[in-house]
Every structure is written in structure tokens, then in C-alpha cells.
Amino acid sequence: MLPGAIMHVAGSYHAAGGNREGLIVVVGLGSCGIAAGGQKVRSALIEAIERRALPIQLRETGCVGMCYREVLVDVFDPQGKRFTYGNVTPERVERLATDHFESGRPVREWLVRSSEESLADDSFFAKQKRIVLRNCGIIDPESLAEYRARDGYQALEKALRRMQPEEVIQAVRDSGLRGRGGAGFPTGLKWQFARGAKGEKKYLICNGDEGDPGAFMDRSVLEGDPHTVIEGMLIAAYGIGADEGYLYVRAEYPLAVRRLRKAIADATMAGFLGEHIMGSMLTARGSEFSFQLHVKEGAGAFVCGEETALMASIEGQRGMPRLRPPFPATSGLWGKPTNINNVETYANIPWILLHGPQAFADLGTEKSKGSKVFALAGKIARGGLVEVPMGITIGEVIYEIGGGIKDGRAFKAVQMGGPSGGCIPASLADTMIDYESVTQTGAIMGSGGMVVLDETACMVEIARFFLDFTQKESCGKCTFCRIGTKRMLEILTRITQGQGQEGDIELLYDLADKVKTSSLCGLGQTAPNPVLTTLRYFREEYEAHIREKRCPAHYCRKLLVYRIDSDLCTGCTACARACPTQAISGVVKQPHLIDQARCIQCGSCVAKCRFDAVKTQ
Amino acid sequence: MERIRILKKFEPKRENLLLLLHALQKNNRQNYLMEEDLKSAAQYLSLPPSLVHGAATFYSMYSLKPRGQYIVRICQSPPCHQMGSSDLIEEASRALGVEVGETTPDGLFTLETSECLGICGVAPAMTVNEEVHGNLTPERVRAIFSEKRRAK
Ligand SMILES: Cc1cc2nc3c(=O)[nH]c(=O)nc-3n(C[C@H](O)[C@H](O)[C@H](O)COP(=O)(O)O)c2cc1C
Ligand code: SF4
Ligand code: SF4
Ligand code: FES
Ligand code: FES
């Protein structure tokens, strides 16, 4: 993020507020900010400011991506200087108010970023290239005026005023943009199919079902900059000739739904949505363009992210995928030609139109252009949301942006692409992030979830976890997706419980092959990937579980041997009382002992011991 | 009556079925869809009851069983799991005295687990109805329950 851009916002804040004197204080109220206690911080700020009767404007913004520092509070002074505080709690507000707001002395030890000095967290942003996230965490997502102040709806105006629909499609083709929902299909080409499809009535859909565990890119964009998505959809609708659209958002994202509804209402009032869009602002040609946009909430079904299932869900049916072809471009919603893209895909469009396709194509690799948003989660030091140019390596994202692994542990693998993806081992950290290179590892680019695993993760268990997910989420239509994944899950569960047998690995391969080839939709076709990649890179862990009944990561409870360290044991008897099988013996104040024959590896004693005396091997 | 008033907020089109079920469930004090709800939704949209029932059972957000006033959903997807969500689930179960999927006898809480809530940046996380909570510890979970009990 450029300091210039931030200065500009601060400037427009001050201009918009008509108050050039006081400070502007901005609280991060994306879902993770709220989850970390953002509303309580906001209330404390209001109270502290009112009590002192300070001339301060309090504002809100969405996710800036530093979720690991939530609650975040930005302070802008009238000169445009910016001070960002991290880990703000209601208790810390008082000192912020006295020292900084009242006396103008920033509390330096709580600062995480500042326009005035370089701080450690700057490296979180150094390698980022923010196109999709250009406004996230900067503007108030509920303010159309702030979006407008950052070139909002100018790409739409440019398209309507100066471009034929075909030219819009050509620009998107030239940019090289590929779908960000997972499969990476060229967006311009998809639009061209939809434009070319026969039929008067055409629909446009935005897929905001984001269900991959560890993914929150689309949520952050919808919550942090809803107008960008709407503008991208409007441009697409103009390009393909659609006059009605749906934004399908998963039910778990109520805040995104609320902000979208507000954004749609505001955009409609301002003439950017509805009939004769920008009619009074434009010449005759533009004013012929109309577009109605509806928000649809899902109801909790992962498979509804699949495009044909999603359309069934919009129609009010059970979200079951159907065979393709016909593809949505020829026969989609209610049998009409339909274009469906992911949230992030649309969010790129306004930038591409304003800066030109070449500027986008200049970023990235030969076949993967532009930037990609990733959600960093798991054992990473800086969990949050980042946007990087394609072609950067996985290692750069994890070490330089993400700050490496939490608690100084070793990086073991990163799970990319959610349940359809796979685990890329640390040894492949120099893999470039582009569609083809990631696919070569056996994982997929996917929608952008990166779940980072450290040395304490058991790879068999990770594979089991993802398979458990897909098995539960299978819609049940295809036998192999339904039964095959269940069988695979049973085998994996057995292995992690020490009941693995020779031949299990071969059986897993065999089932994986069947599930992949005889499933109708992507869910089944990709479900075995987490198993296949962990087998490919961590086969010896499977073998240790199966042959030696040993979990190399010391994770699988059933494969651990529990022992009491007689030097640490104080004889408090807590473990003995907790043990469900009376496996622990010993007198009060004397070291206790575990009878291995009776121990069922439940782990209760470890949890109960306050002296860390129960050890596992 | 009440139910009709809710239904009337939506155009009687099939595409509104999910919205309608959400609205009916929200209106129910025990957070679930009663047989009557499904029947009247089917009638209102002129759909066969089996179809409405099919949709209501397909999607995990609908419940056909009475639930508590607060639905507690603790995320158990890998990022939260890695950050210790199983301890939270155990603690919640102890604190509420119910197993996952059950409702407390006073009808206040239902304990559920969920897949990723999309706030993994502050894992481990949970929701209580539409409220989101992150960076949780077993103590915080208890404290949140106490707050809700007091607010009753
Ligand atoms: C099981 C399954 C789940 C999916 N979930 C999503 C999702 O949550 N969001 C999304 O954009 N695409 C998802 N997709 C991909 C969509 O089917 C579709 O390819 C995508 O929305 C197209 O948009 P794009 O070309 O912009 O990527 C999913 C696919 C499958 C098979
Ligand atoms: S592959 Fe699985 S999820 Fe997809 S249609 Fe078949 S059964 Fe349903
Ligand atoms: S692991 Fe469980 S069964 Fe074994 S000694 Fe400890 S408490 Fe007893
Ligand atoms: S929501 Fe604030 S940084 Fe993620
Ligand atoms: S994994 Fe729990 S919120 Fe994403």
C-alpha cells in the first residue's frame, strides 16, 4: 500500500468532514476485528472522546489484512500523518486518549505501523501488490462517497461512455485475468461465451459461497469494499448483455450480506444500479443499460459453491450439482445463458479498466497474470489477508510476508486450495505461485486459502481432517463420492488410531482413483487430493503409523506412550483421579506410575497435571 | 397470524424458499422450523411439501428440532483445530453441561460445531447467533456464556 494513497484518504476524510483541526480515528470492523473485540474498543473510544469533548471524527473500516494485530485503530492527524495501533483493547483506550488524542504524543510501544517511522510490521506489506484489496481497510465500506473518492464507479463510467461491450470483453481478455474461484478459467473468454450465447435474457452471478476451510478472501472484500464487487459485476453485465444478477453469499457471512444490501441501496439511489444506469450523466448509449442486482443468502452447504449447485440453490432447490455440459454460459439460471464468476475475479475488473489491461498483464508470469489474494491461517506468525503479484514464491509469502512460523517452530507444509487442494512440503517452498506451478505439486491454486502447518502437525491426521470435511459435505448424488470418501476416511481413521494394516496405502490409492474418475462435480473429483499429496510427500509418516504404530509428529493420541517423569511428579494425585481406567498408581506425595497395559491413551492425565510431569513419546 | 405476516414479506416465488425458511426459523423462539412452518411455506409457494422438506433437510443452517435461544457454533476446521478448538469444544460442553448437538435444559444454549467461519485470522473462533468471537481461550468461552446468562 502506498503511503500516498493513505495520505489521499486522510485528505479526503478531512475534506469530507469539514473539520480540518481534529484527528480522525478509524477502527477496523471487519468480522475478525469484531471477533477480536472491535465493537468494545469502539464504545470505549466514543466514551473517552466524548468525556474529553475532543474534536475527533470516529470512523470505521474493513479488513486491512493484519488480522493477527486485531483490534486495529488508525489515527490520522490533519497533516495526513498516520499512526496504526495494534492489539488495542478497551483498557488501552484511556492511555491512547490522554497521550495521543489529547496531548499529541503517540504511544510508540503500541504502534504497529506509522507514516513517521519504519516498524517491524512494514515487511507485511513490502511485497504486496494490492489491486483487489486496494480499498480494504482504508475506506468506510458503508460509504459510497469514500468509494467514489477513490475512483469508484469511474471504470463503469469509462465502459459505458467510451467502450463497446466487445471492447470491454477484449480488455479483460488482454489482461490475462483468470477466474479466482479455483479453476482459473480465463475470464474474458468466459464472458465472450456468455455474450455469444443465444437468448434475450441473460443472468450474471457472483459466487460468494467461500467455503474452503481457511479461506476468507471473499468475506474480507465483500465486507471491506462491497462497491468494487458491484462495479465489477456491472461492467461484466454490460459486456455480456445481462440485465439481472445475483450475489450469492454464504449464510455464515451476515455482515457481508448487510453491507452488500446497503451498498446496493446506495448505488441504486446514486443511479449506478437499476434502470438507465448513469442515464443523466451519460449519452444515449449508456443510458440504455439497466441492471438489477439481488443478494441471495446460502443456508449452509459447501457444495453450493459449485456453480451448477449454486444456481439450483438460487432457484430455491437443494443445491445438487448437475452434469456439464451444458455450461452455464449456454444454459444456466432458469435455463438462461448465465455468467458466473468469483468475488475476487469481479473485484479486479474496475482496476483493469482504469489502469488498462497491460498494467495488469505486466504483473505475474506468462500464464498467470496480475495479483492473487491469499488468506494466511494456521501456524503462521502473521495470520491475515495478503495480496501478492503472481510469480512470487510460497516461501516469500510465508517467511517474508507472514513472518514465518508461530513460536519459532519449523515450517512443515502448507495446505493450498482447501479440501480440493493439497499439502505442499517445506522443501518446495521456492515453488512459484502461478496456476501451473502449483498444480504440478499436486495441490491447486484454489481460491486462496493457505493453511500453514508446523512440525507438530501429523500429515495423516491433516489428510483425515480434510477428507472428513468432503465426506460430510458430499451431496450424495454420486456413489463414489458418497461411499468412496467414507471408505477412505475409515482407513485414515484406523491408521491414526494405530489400527493400520499393510495394504492400506495401496487401498487408499485405489479408492482415490475411483473417487476422482467417477464423481460428477469438482467436490468428488478433487476430494482425494489432500490424501494423495500427503502420500506423495509424507509417505514415511503413513508407514510409521501403519508399521511401527508410531506418530512421528507426536500428535495421534492413540499412538503415544504416556509416562510420568518421577523428577517432576509431586504426587498430587490429580492424574490418578482423572484416569478413566485406573491405570495410574502411587501414594500421595510420591511419584506416580502408569500401567501401560491399562492405559487407553486418552490424554486426561496430561491435561490434568499442573507440573507437566506426564510425558508422551 | 404471525406466520402469514412473515410469508407476506416475500413474493410467492420458488426462488424465495431459502429466504423464507430463514425468516421463519429466526422468528421461532426455539430457533427451528416446525412442521407448521414447512407446511405453510409449501402452501404459500404452491410447492409440494416433500420439496420444502427436502430443502430444509439439505441445508445445515435449518433445524427441524427445537434449539436454544443462543446457538453456539465452535469452528472445528483445520486452522481453528490447530489453534486448539477441540479444547474449546470440551470446555463449552463442560460449562453448558451438554454434548455437541444438544440444548441446555433451560433452553438457553445449543452447542454446535461448524466448519470454517471465515475468521481464521483470529482463530480459534466461534459464533453465538450472529455474534462473532475470536482469539478464544477456554476462559473466554466461559465468560461469554456467563455474559449471555446474565443478559437473559
Ligand atoms: C465443491 C466446489 C465448491 C466450490 N466453491 C466455490 C466457492 O466457494 N467460490 C467460488 O468462487 N467458486 C467455487 N467453486 C468453483 C465454481 O464452481 C466456479 O468455477 C467459479 O465460481 C467460477 O468463477 P471464476 O471463473 O471467477 O473462478 C467451487 C467448485 C466446487 C466443485
Ligand atoms: S461428486 Fe460428490 S458432491 Fe459432486 S455431485 Fe457427485 S456426490 Fe455430489
Ligand atoms: S492417558 Fe488416560 S488412560 Fe492413560 S494413564 Fe493417562 S489418564 Fe490414564
Ligand atoms: S478484519 Fe481487520 S485485519 Fe482482518
Ligand atoms: S478455520 Fe475456524 S474460522 Fe476458519
Structure description:
The complex is a heterodimer of chains A (617) and B (152). Chain A has 25 helices and 18 strands. Helices cover 41% and strands 14% of the residues of chain A. Chain A has a five-stranded mixed β-sheet. In chain A, strands 11-10-14-12-13 form a five-stranded mixed β-sheet. In chain A, strands 8-7-6-9 form a four-stranded parallel β-sheet, sandwiched between helices. Chain A is an alpha/beta fold and 617 residues long. Chain A folds into five domains: 3-118, Glutaredoxin; 144-355, Rossmann fold (3-Layer(aba) Sandwich); 371-454, Ubiquitin-like (UB roll); 459-547, Up-down Bundle (de novo design (two linked rop proteins)), CATH 1.20.1440.230; 560-616, Alpha-Beta Plaits, CATH 3.30.70.20. Chain A is globular and about 90 Å long. In chain A, helix 3 (38-52) crosses helix 4 (90-102), helix 8 (165-175) packs across helix 11 (226-240) and helix 11 crosses helix 15. Chain B has 152 residues and is an alpha+beta fold. Chain B has two domains: 2-58, no CATH class; 70-151, Glutaredoxin (3-Layer(aba) Sandwich), CATH 3.40.30.10. Helices cover 45% and strands 12% of the residues of chain B. Chain B contains seven helices and four strands. Chain B has a four-stranded mixed β-sheet with strand order 2-1-3-4, covered by helices on one side. In chain B, a hairpin with a 2-residue loop joins strand 3 (126-128) and strand 4. In chain B, helix 2 (17-27) packs antiparallel against helix 3, helix 3 crosses helix 4 (49-58) and helix 6 (85-96) runs parallel beside helix 7. Chain B is elongated. At the A-B interface, helix 2, strand 10 and helix 19 of A face helix 2, helix 4 and helix 5 of B. The structure holds flavin mononucleotide, iron/sulfur cluster (2 copies) and FE2/S2 (inorganic) cluster (2 copies).
CATH homologous superfamily placement of the largest domain in chain A: NADH-ubiquinone oxidoreductase 51kDa subunit
Arrangement of strands in the largest sheet of chain B: 2-1-3-4
Q: Which bin fits the share of residues in helices of chain B?
A: 40-55%
Total helical segments of chain B: 7
Uncertain stretches of chain B: none
